[in-house]
């Protein structure tokens, strides 16, 4: 673990005390907002239990492997019945990741949680892509903080069928995290193939968040690009628009999101617009299509307000979604992200918040079989100020093209101020 970011961070502690404890380092920073010392202690013990308990993470196994043989009931109360604020912990975790690793984007990903019975909050029939079948379960969305070297879930939203749509739930996972203004407004990467492509752009515009979303070929759009004068301003489906734009295709090269190998594809980009929900004014957007085989239909359609970004940079940004899929399977599943055995809304939110902290420990440790490893001695937070990463050419998307004129460019970073804790 000598090449991990957590190891770098704990070296001063090790030099002073002779003890190196990456888990304690992260927990001390992330749980500082909890008002009571016993809450901070139990939060750390819960994270340690998630990291060490084998198999499914029940409350009993978490307590046993955290050194609390008789503490199962105490931990259950801490998760399901306590009053501590999970949102402040999530904000602190996001700040910790930005300070230690630097962030490039928020990636919003769905998570289906199979459940037996019908009395758990948010349960209904859902399609689980992992299993390839319908299941009885919950649907959640996680907002992942993603940098060049790490990815970890931070924000969460649980879909309640009677209260919100899936698209609103997906947006909420990241909007709840960025509303306080404590974090840099990074691009949001998400999948809207099955709905939400028409209303989500306006929600992100209202929050002044740039976005890049994958959409379906049937998504209706209005072409406003002079390169396609024949289409006019009539509403057309994304697939038909890009069929007319085939002559605009150009080859691009970009790194694969999982193994880093260089990929070659053909892309075409067209200026479009889509009306926001509730009759909001139309906004200029760009539709980008990617072909791995120019003789076939596009592999994916991407809609974005990063209209000045070159295709290679947008595809590199889109690839972050595949990295999140890899890290969910390799890390989140192992720390029990879907293993909450209770039924309550508050208990679920507290469990996934602490499981997200456990995931962050693992990804910052840089285990080679999970993340591809880190070079030995990789500096932690090199050049990253305490309130965020450096702004690159007026926009906080390190390693990505400048987004000229985007309303989020150059916005000041508001320093995180953890809630004052009591004794």
Task: Name some characteristics of this structure.
single chain, 423 residues, elongated, twelve-stranded mixed beta sheet, alpha+beta, 12 strands
Radius of gyration, in angstroms, nearest whole number: 22 Å
Q: Characterize the largest beta sheet: strand count, sense, and whether it forms a barrel.
A: 12 strands, mixed
The number of helical elements comes to: 13
Structural class designation: alpha+beta
Distance between the termini: 34 Å
Mean pLDDT: 81
- Tell how many strands the DSSP assignment holds: 12
Q: Note the beta-strand portion.
A: 15-25%
Write down the secondary-structure element order.
HHHHHHEEEEHEHEEEHEEEEHHHH
Shape verdict? elongated
Which consecutive residue ranges, at least 5 long each, have pLDDT under 50?
A: 276-281, 368-423
What is the helix fraction of residues, given as a range?
A: 25-40%
What would you note in describing this structure?
The chain has helices at residues 5-17, 22-30, 37-52, 59-65, 72-80, 86-101, 166-178, 200-206, 238-244, 311-318, 320-332, 345-365, 368-371; strands at residues 105-114, 124-128, 133-146, 151-158, 188-192, 211-215, 220-223, 235-237, 250-255, 262-274, 283-291, 300-304. With 423 residues, the protein is an alpha+beta fold. The longest helix has 21 residues, at 345-365. Strands 1, 2, 3, 4, 5, 6, 7, 8, 9, 10, 11 and 12 form a twelve-stranded mixed β-sheet that branches. Mean pLDDT is 81; it is low at 276-281 and 368-423. A hairpin with a 4-residue loop joins strand 2 (124-128) and strand 3 (133-146).
């Amino acid at each position: 673990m000598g090449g991990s970011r957590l190891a770098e961070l704990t070296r001063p502690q090790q030099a002073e005390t002779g003890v190196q404890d990456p888990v304690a380092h992260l927990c001390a920073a992330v749980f500082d907002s909890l008002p009571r010392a016993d809450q901070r202690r139990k939060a750390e013990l819960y994270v340690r239990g998630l990291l060490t308990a084998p198999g499914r993470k029940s409350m009993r196994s978490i307590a046993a492997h955290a050194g609390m043989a008789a503490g199962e009931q105490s931990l259950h109360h801490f998760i399901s019945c306590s009053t501590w604020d999970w949102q402040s912990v999530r904000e602190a975790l996001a700040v910790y990741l930005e300070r230690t690793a630097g962030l490039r984007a928020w990636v919003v990903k769905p998570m289906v949680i199979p459940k037996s019975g019908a009395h758990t909050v948010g349960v209904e029939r859902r399609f689980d892509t992992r299993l390839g079948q319908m299941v009885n379960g919950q649907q959640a969305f996680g907002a992942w903080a993603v940098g060049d070297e790490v990815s970890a879930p931070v924000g969460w939203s649980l879909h309640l069928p009677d209260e919100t749509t899936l698209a609103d739930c997906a947006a909420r996972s990241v909007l709840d995290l960025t509303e306080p203004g404590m974090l840099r407004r990074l691009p949001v990467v998400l999948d809207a193939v099955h709905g939400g492509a028409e209303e989500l752009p306006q929600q992100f515009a209202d929050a002044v968040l740039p976005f890049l979303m994958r959409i379906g070929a049937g998504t209706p759009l209005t072409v406003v690009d002079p390169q396609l004068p024949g289409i006019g301003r009539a509403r057309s489906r994304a697939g038909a628009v890009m069929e007319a734009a085939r002559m605009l295709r150009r080859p691009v090269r970009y790194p694969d999101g999982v193994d880093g190998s260089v990929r070659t594809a053909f892309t075409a980009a067209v200026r479009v617009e889509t009306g926001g929900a509730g009759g909001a004014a139309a906004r200029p957007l760009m539709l980008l299509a990617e072909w791995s085989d120019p003789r076939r239909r596009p592999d994916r359609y991407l809609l974005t307000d990063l209209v000045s970004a070159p295709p290679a940079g947008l595809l590199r940004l889109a690839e972050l979604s595949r990295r999140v899929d890899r890290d969910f399977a390799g890390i989140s599943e192992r720390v029990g992200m879907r293993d909450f055995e209770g039924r309550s809304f508050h208990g679920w939110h507290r469990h996934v918040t602490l499981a997200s902290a456990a995931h962050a420990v693992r990804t910052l440790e840089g285990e080679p079989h999970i993340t591809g490893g880190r070079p030995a001695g990789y500096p932690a937070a090199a050049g990253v100020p305490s309130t965020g990463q450096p702004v690159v050419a007026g926009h906080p998307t390190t390693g990505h093209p400048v987004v000229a004129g985007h309303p989020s460019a150059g916005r000041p970073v508001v320093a995180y101020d953890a809630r004052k804790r009591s004794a």
